[in-house]
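Two records follow; treat each independently.
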Amino acid sequence: MINQLISLSLKNRYIVLLIAALLFTWGIYAMRQNPIDAIPDLSENQVIVFTEWAGRSPQLMEDQVTYPLVSNLQGIPNVKSIRANSMFGMSFVYLVFNDKTDIYWARSRVLERLNYAQRLLPQGITPTLGPDGTGVGHILWYTLDAKGLDLGEQRALQDWYVKLGLQTVPGVSEVASFGGFEKQYQINIDPGKLNYYHIPLSQVLKAVKSNNNDVGGRKFEMNGTGYMIRGLGYIKTIADVENIAIANINTVTVRMWDVANVQMGGDLRLGIFDQNGEGEAVGGIVVMHYGENADRVIHAVKDKMADMEHGFPRGVKFKIAYDRSELIEQALNSVKHTLIEEMVTVSIIVILFLFSWRSTLSIIIQIPITIACSFILLNAFGISSNIMSLTGIALAIGVIVDNGIVMVENSHRNLAIAQENKTP
């Protein structure tokens, strides 16, 4: 069989060269399409359901939120296991699907079941799906180098400008903000004053909610011109909160400043983010979509950062804290250097021992063709270019070269024997 294959190849050498060229071209295309990452993604195929209910104990979250969700999410097709965790004010449900299940099909089925399960939860509680990323989806960490802004202003810049801009980059699933203070209006109510005016706390809360809203009216026409009537009520300053009317006692209006102190402050924090011992910092974590090309997404995010820096206040710029593309590029450069070293070594060895440039060329040409064909198989089996797969290719180069050297040397030996037999 092998002899027939070799004989057929020698008789149709141009067809063999054409097939080799087509395989090499296909391999180059597959190499460009293959996702590139630093480490293989071995995380489970899971969907996370997150529910928040502020101020509730873990036991109450377990009884009122986690248990109803877990009991109603059971029975979804291709679910391998369901895990849950209840914390103070938060509930997490992890649905692990079979490895071959499409992640977006799984998310749609979970969302369908949540529409039914939500009626069993307390009023006003809405469970949400986590981002469609994996445990290795954190591809880039950055901070804001803004010495002229306080932590509250930096967090506002991150949440309302940087985060919204980076989420438009193709391949980005989520940008998680960290550090700083989230600005909020804080109303510190004096219980003694509420008791003096006989005003319940619920009435204060209702007044704040009802006075933070815009109201639309009808169209008003006058002298052939139409005017749209609107009531502007959104809170914009601290004075707007202080002037909210709470009650009317003996024709005297009781306003917010009569029973409370209003100020601008930061939300309660459970920790701080310190960078290299230099003080607190504000930044974000870029999470990519499931199965995306990490190297391509990172470069797209960096290009977007360069564009967004033009809209920053003076003296503010990005500072990269973690960049996986450096590890990816090092892994690719390692394979390139190994490939070049193998080619040079093979050329020297073959020329020294066989004194034949044609034999050297026939061995060297096997290396790029074989590597290109390996990327066709990587795409076929859904394997990304990472440290593990690229290391396997680098190790296989030695085997390819060894086989080529042995076959060429054996061919030279057989040709020499045949030439000696012909000599009288």
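The next record belongs to a different protein.
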Amino acid sequence: MLNDMNKETLFYDYYKQWVDVYKRGAIRDATMSKYLMTQKWVEKLVPDVRISELSRTVYQQLLNDYAKEHERQTTLDFHHQLKGAILDAVDEGLIDRDPTRKAIIKGKTPRAKKIKYLNQFELHTLIAHLDIKEEANWDWFILLVAKTGMRFSEALAITPADFDFARQTLSISKTWDYKGDGGFLPTKNNSSVRKIQIDWQIVVKFSELVKGLPEDKPIFVGEDKIYNSTVNDVLARHCRACGISSISIHGLRHTHASLLLFAGVSIASVARRLGHASMTTTQKTYLHIIQELENKDVDLVMRTLSGL
């Protein structure tokens, strides 16, 4: 790989060049930023450790030091990003044995994360308050996210061509690079490429909105740079004016999923609609809602059995 590397090379230098050689240009910018952040932590925590000194004990201490300021899942991600480089160093003979073997992953206790979402009445109130003009604005955007549960970047990338009004479907196959220089990007994962059903209200409203718009151009993207905070501020103002809890655009995604689950839609169907890689993600994210539904199910089971 890197001819100038030897056992006396600093681990930080090896990891930095490994990221440049194997990851730069091969992964999405968002993922690359995580590798670069790991790189900074390696420099901070073990600036003087050489590759030959990377024993199991040294590596475990590196993980332990990182875990002091991070939750367990974040530490696990840190470990996985380091492990790829270390295994390559083992293959190249720079490290005698795999120091990542049997590593213990620790971390700070996660803070309780309460998902913010609106109930059905609150969402209805919010939608009724939106100012739907003849031309696309952020109120149109809020309406679309509320009705589809799309991610922020997915909704930004929607073009008129993505709508199939005859079949009442919307194709989600790309995202918009709002954090960078703009332009289309791939979806978060393969499961995020999906086609979802849209209700007749969206069909009627958006079929009028997109008339005359370029088929392959994003509906909500203009010349100015887009910030997530701008749209969240618009949404927050509507929430305050309606007298309901203020939520973010991502909170609208949670609202969409929550209402479907409470309505009895299966976890599998909700997972597909949200573009989750697996039902496990949906179950973890909406565990509190699923538990509430299970409590209702127990009552239903008991009433059914009692009537036999």
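Discussion point: The CA atoms of residues 169 and 197 lie 4 Å apart. How would you locate this feature using only the token line?
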